[in-house]
Write a structure and sequence with these properties.
Layout (H helix, E strand, L loop, with lengths): L4 H20 L1 H4 L3 H6 L6 H12 L3 H13 L5 H4 L1 H11 L1 H7 L6 H6 L3 H38 L6 H47 L6 H8 L20 E2 L2 E2 L5 H14 L11 H9 L3 H18 L1 H14 L10 H10 L4 H37 L5 H23 L5 H11 L3 H7 L8 H22 L5 H20 L5 H11 L6 H6 L9 H26 L3 H26 L2
Antiparallel strand pairs: 1-2
Helix pairs in contact: 1-11, 1-18, 4-11, 4-14, 4-15, 4-18, 5-10, 5-16, 5-17, 7-13, 7-15, 7-26, 8-14, 8-15, 10-11, 10-17, 10-18, 10-19, 10-20, 10-22, 11-16, 11-18, 11-19, 13-23, 14-15, 15-26, 16-17, 18-19, 21-22, 22-23, 26-27
Length: 586
């Protein structure tokens, strides 16, 4: 497709503005690693929260949602909608704890919470494994989506898209390495607004086209089960969901159980880490105080799961009608084809900017977050503990570039967004329970977390070479294998050194099973806030899903269900307000 002058002006203006922000915040990011990786711990909740949302909105996100909807209808989104349960757990039980910990990275918490050489090894191992290799898979996943967009939109040959993706990454490296987290967070806010604006415009143009005929046209032309918010629990061999030539797959009971009952707490996944972690923890730790950390995380859950997805879902549903019977593995391209076919001059540039904004917000965070691991938890911790602030910031910028190179290399090996998602879920299966319990049970030790980190990888290898189980049964196997391993190892090894546990308890003051440590410190028994926190978590789940489904019911004019959702939402707001006040009481 040929872009007009207006389109190019929009694109170049956006790129110049982004680079300008990076240059503007360079000095503020250069003071120390805390400035570079945490923005000086001074982000207001709305910047930190929007930055979280922008990071999880990449070029791959609308394409992944399209792939899920084309294959399974709206209910296919439960592959990631289930994450709201764990997200609200993080909000009410962990956000304040992360801010209290006063660490630069979540990996630094390892040596605050555990003791001995094993803790040093775990911190260094996860710095390399997560910051470099695992992070490269995430970056590659995002790059594949951008490559698909470039291939369809500009008719670029598939074997040449990698060069354009590499050029895009270089632009991101320049501004993210200059400005650190503060510049990344500020550009995230701008990029999120632009990205959502572009997606809303595309949704309107596609729905308004004669081939669709608005939301009523979608309802008329699509199979009824395609529009269900909850999965049709069918026998795996049932393919009866057919209308007007479109065949929709059902979701098995085992798959839905994996989504609702297991995945949200068992698997470590960036942006949905059980108990918080990665760039979500990074944003919580960069907030002004505990209150801002809590508000940022709550805003993230509502915006991520409720505010954003419907504009993508509506275009994905339209793609089923507009581009029927896609080739296997190319279901995601329906979104890009809609961009190509329905955007007029000027708006093409706007939506391309929207996609570039979404892409850049995610990649910049992944680069900054990965570099924080490599520098804070590997380079400074093990190689240059006395390095100056200037040297560490310089090394951080070099690490950002190295991670970019790894990301490009892995990009050439990934073909399916959904396959990459499943791999990421399986590779972290079982780790989540340990990450949750380490805050609330003193007996969890470094060997528990080591076992829960390494065992899933062994499980993935066993499954792919010997058992050949398909998802979700592969998840069940890896989770069970990992859980048995870490529970046994926990009780077969010694607890963490008491002095380390005392230091952790004094700094964080966690709830839960810490009585032996509290008694050793001669501290009075604290007020039991855990019941209020758990109640707030459950109410938060109701808040998030009522918000998500309420918007959907309004779109499809199901006003009775909308009224029920709205009532639950308002009731949840009032209940959370009361519970948060009770939690805040000493």
């Amino acid at each position: 497709m040929i872009l007009e002058l207006a389109d190019w002006l929009i694109i170049f203006s956006f790129l110049l503005l982004t680079l300008g922000i990076g240059i503007y915040y360079t000095k503020k990011a250069s003071g120390s690693t805390e400035d570079f990786f945490l923005g000086g711990r001074n982000l207001p909740w709305w910047v930190a929260g929007t930055s979280m949302v922008a990071t999880t909105f990449a070029a791959d996100t609308p394409l992944l949602v399209t792939e899920l909807v084309v294959k399974n209808g709206i209910s296919g989104n439960w592959l990631w909608w289930n994450g709201l349960i764990g997200g609200m757990l993080t909000t009410f039980l962990f956000a304040r704890l992360w801010r209290k910990a006063k660490v630069i990275t979540d990996l630094e918490l390892i040596e605050l919470r555990y003791s001995g050489k094993a803790a040093k090894f775990l911190r260094g191992f996860r710095a390399v494994y997560l910051g470099l290799f695992f992070n490269a898979v995430i970056i590659a996943w995002v790059n594949v989506a951008l490559a698909a967009l470039l291939q369809v939109f500009f008719d670029i040959p598939a074997n040449q898209t990698i060069y354009y993706v590499a050029a895009a990454m270089v632009i991101v490296v320049i501004y993210s390495s200059l400005s650190g987290l503060l510049g990344v967070a500020i550009t995230d806010v701008l990029q999120f607004v632009l990205a959502m604006t572009g997606c809303v415009v595309l949704t309107y143009l596609v729905l308004d086209s004669p081939k669709i005929g608005g939301v009523s046209g979608l309802i008329e032309k699509l199979p009824a089960n395609t529009l269900n918010f909850f999965p049709q629990i069918e026998d795996s061999s049932n393919t009866e969901l057919v209308k007007n030539g479109f065949q929709m797959l059902s979701i098995s009971l085992a798959t839905f159980f994996a989504y609702i009952g297991i995945q949200w707490w068992a698997s470590w996944y960036p942006g949905a880490e059980p108990g918080g972690g990665g760039y979500v923890a990074q944003r919580m730790m960069s907030a002004k105080d505990e209150e801002h950390a809590f508000k940022a995380t709550l805003f993230f859950q509502l915006a991520h799961y409720g505010l954003r997805p419907w504009v993508w879902i509506l275009v994905a549903l339209s793609a089923i009608i507009l581009y029927p019977n896609p080739i296997a593995g190319e279901e995601k391209l329906g979104y890009v084809l809609a961009m190509k076919d329905f955007l007029p001059t000027g708006l093409r540039g706007l939506l391309l900017v929207a996609f570039f904004a979404a892409y850049m917000s995610t990649i910049s965070t992944q680069l900054n977050w990965g570099a924080s691991y490599i520098i804070n938890d590997l380079y400074q911790r093990f190689y240059k503990p006395k390095a100056s602030s200037k040297e560490l910031v310089t090394a951080s910028r070099i690490a950002t570039f190295v991670i970019m190179l790894f990301g490009i290399l892995v990009t050439t090996q990934i073909t399916s967004l959904e396959a990459a998602f499943v791999f990421l879920i399986e590779a972290g299966a079982g780790l989540g329970a340990v990450l949750i319990l380490r805050w609330y049970w003193w007996r969890i030790n470094v060997f528990s977390e080591l076992a829960a980190t390494i065992t899933p990888l062994i499980g993935v290898i066993l499954n792919r070479t010997v058992l050949h189980l398909e998802s979700p049964y592969s998840l069940f196997f890896i989770l069970g294998f990992t859980t048995v391993a870490w529970v046994l190892i926990t009780f077969l090894t010694k607890p963490t050194d008491e002095q380390t546990l005392q230091k952790f308890y004094e700094r964080v003051r966690p709830q839960g099973s810490w009585q032996p440590i509290r008694i050793s410190l001669n501290l009075p028994k604290p007020k039991n806030q855990l019941p209020y926190m758990i109640a707030a978590w459950f109410v938060g789940i109701a808040l998030g899903y009522s918000f998500l489904f309420g918007i959907g019911y309004a779109i499809f004019s199901k006003w009775m269900l909308f009224g029920i959702s709205f009532g639950i939402f308002i009731g949840s707001v009032l209940a959370i307000n009361w519970l948060v006040k009770k939690i805040a009481e000493e």
